[in-house]
Amino acid sequence: MRLKNVFLLGFLLIAIFALSQESINFSNLGKDKQGRYFVKNTGKVYTGKAYDKYKNNQVGMSGEIKNGYFEGKWTWWYEDGSKKRQTTYKNGIKTGYSYWWYKNGQKKSQIKFINNRNVEQKRWDKRGKLLPNPRMR
């Protein structure tokens, strides 16, 4: 019974630590010459959640920063709260699909990235009609 309580306490402490992860307003971050984000008042390279808000207090963007670089899924919203963009990063590099939406909720574009390079793209108009593929560079 005592061992069970020790495991339960350990699990609880890990859960509290994971859920209490630091979060910072993006305006409190700077960017160094290597492209890493750091906390302006300390100069320390940042790891944790970051967000930015519009003047109306609506979240405009949010995501995770790891060792100073965007990591995982980042999401941007319009000022009215509708989703604007979603992009996945690995060590600050766009990877996988990035999606953009019009304010009306219709998908605007879908871009596939490999090592930050646009390798495939689809676009739609505001009514959902597939548009010709833009010239790839």
Explain this structure to me?
The structure is a single chain. The chain is mainly beta and 137 residues long. The protein has one domain (22-131): Outer Surface Protein A, domain 3. It contains 1 helix and 12 strands; from the N terminus they run αββββββββββββ. The strands form 2 sheets. Strands 1, 4, 5, 6, 7, 8, 9, 10, 11 and 12 form a 10-stranded mixed sheet that branches. Strands 2-3 form a two-stranded antiparallel sheet. Strand 10 (107-114) and strand 11 form a beta hairpin. It starts with a helix and ends in a 6-residue tail after the last strand. The model is unreliable at 15-20 (pLDDT under 50).
Topology order in helix (H) and strand (E) letters: HEEEEEEEEEEEE
CATH topology: Outer Surface Protein A, domain 3
Structural class: mainly beta
User: Any guess at the CATH architecture?
Assistant: Alpha-Beta Complex
Count of DSSP helices?
Answer: 1
Integer count of domains = 1
Rounded radius of gyration (Å): 19 Å
Q: Please, what is the average pLDDT?
A: 88
The CATH first-level class comes to: Alpha Beta
> Termini distance?
65 Å
How many runs of DSSP E, i.e. beta strands?
A: 12
Query: What form results from the Cα inertia axes?
Result: globular
* Spans of at least 5 consecutive residues with low confidence: 15-20
Strand content: over 45%
User: What is the helix content?
Assistant: 10-25%
User: Biggest sheet, open or closed, and with what strands and sense?
Assistant: 10 strands, mixed
